[in-house]
Amino acid sequence: MRAPRETLSLIGHAEAERLAGEALSGDRVPQAWLLTGPPGVGKATFAYRMARFLLTGAGSDAGPSLFGDAAPATGLGVDPDHPAVRQIAAGSHPDLLVIERAMDEKKDKLKAAISVDQVREIGQFLHLTASQGGWRIVIVDTADEMNTNAANALLKVLEEPPKRSMLLLVSNTPGRLLPTIRSRCRLLRFSPLADAEVRAVAAEVLDAGETLDPIAVLLADGAPGRALALAEPETRAVLTDLLALLKQGARLDPLALHAFADKLGKAGADALYRSFLDLFDAWLMRIIRHTARTGSPPNDLPGEADAAQAAIAAAGSLDRLIEVWEKNGQLFRQTDGLNLDRKQAVLSALLPLTLRP
């Protein structure tokens, strides 16, 4: 499966590309962008698309507009055979810096946050001369994962970015960012895709012979990244186990619940834990929306209706289930921010959905 840095095509998000093209061809090119939208909707892919567009030579003119006196480009597509495209795909382009959570080698999992030392690299990087005389670009994926010191360090960079530099901040929850960071960025919103577009994205990303499970599309809620994660057998197994646990309600076996939480909280399970967070959040919101709209829970997955009914009964009402969903979001953000025990967080999130009031 191809990573965002390797994905050249853009399916959906035509309006975002149009707005970006207009801004890049204006008299004053924005040097900081905030790309917002649901997880897995394609924000990181778009960030690399913008970086690729600039680093393949667009905007080499000396004027404030990328295109000088010529007509602006109608899209951000580039020649796939350009050397910069291969360098970006390999993570070796000298004028592109990508900031992500680093790996904690001792604990064999990603660190809880992007650190201030990582963000300080941005200022040093942007003040270097571009190797090919063009742009120097930084992608922060995701900016939501910066700790407080890192966010303040980024703010200093945004206050006076060097000429011909650009920062692309990917954000799932922009409300978690400092207002002063948001105010210094050009906002670009990304909406969920249609199911047909989700399938088309998957066809571009999956290896030959692989197909996307229709259930994955159903649960993706317009986010191709989520659909692709659900296509992974290990992630689908987590969903199956989750529904099997929840449908037991008050009869839930405590040993089974602890075994489930152990699997997600153990060292080396970072990717699976992240998939669970996204999946659990999406599934709870799915049953809330479906039940509010139709008066009955969804029933597209084996055991889904029973699990949904048990969760609503445990919460006490649909309104109380919404409160549980909101509290779980806060719980998992706090767990990440303070590097708390993940197993305990999973248990704390599931218990209100398995005990009758």
Automatic annotation (TrEMBL):
Cellular component, GO, one term: DNA polymerase III complex
Domain of life of the source: Bacteria
Pfam families listed in its UniProt record: DNA_pol3_delta2 (PF13177)
Domain AAA+ ATPase: 29-193
GO biological process: DNA-templated DNA replication
NCBIfam families: PRK07471.1
Protein name (record): AAA+ ATPase domain-containing protein
